[in-house]
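TICKET: design request
STATUS: open
ATTACHED STRUCTURE:
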């Protein structure tokens, strides 16, 4: 739903999913936080890809938005998704702390 209106071919989408540890042919349970995090991370990757490709942004038509307005909207959505991903706690580690230096 987060990338609705963005046209990607199956090969591109498969690559984005694989980069985030997901398979295009699998069915995912959104109640599993690790799956949900991967799905959001994939949407984030797609939006970042669109935001970095000016020619692709020019080809997207949304209610008479200019490219700069579209870019601002994309950046806002990217920030929202990034915050949402950071707030998802994955339960495979029972501690909320980690070692930064070893």
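STATUS: resolved
RESOLUTION: sequence designed for all positions
ATTACHED SEQUENCE:
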């Amino acid at each position: 739903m987060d990338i609705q209106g963005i046209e990607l071919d199956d090969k591109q989408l498969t690559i984005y999913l694989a980069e985030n540890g997901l398979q295009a042919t699998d069915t995912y349970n959104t109640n599993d936080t690790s799956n949900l995090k991967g799905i959001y991370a994939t949407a984030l990757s797609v939006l970042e890809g669109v935001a970095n490709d000016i020619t692709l942004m020019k080809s997207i038509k949304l209610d008479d938005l200019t490219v700069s307005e579209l870019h601002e909207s994309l950046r806002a959505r990217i920030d929202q998704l990034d915050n949402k991903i950071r707030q998802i706690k994955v339960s495979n580690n029972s501690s909320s702390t980690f070692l930064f230096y070893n």
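CLOSING REMARK: Residues 28 and 35 are 6 Å apart (CA to CA). The first helix runs from residue 10 to 19.
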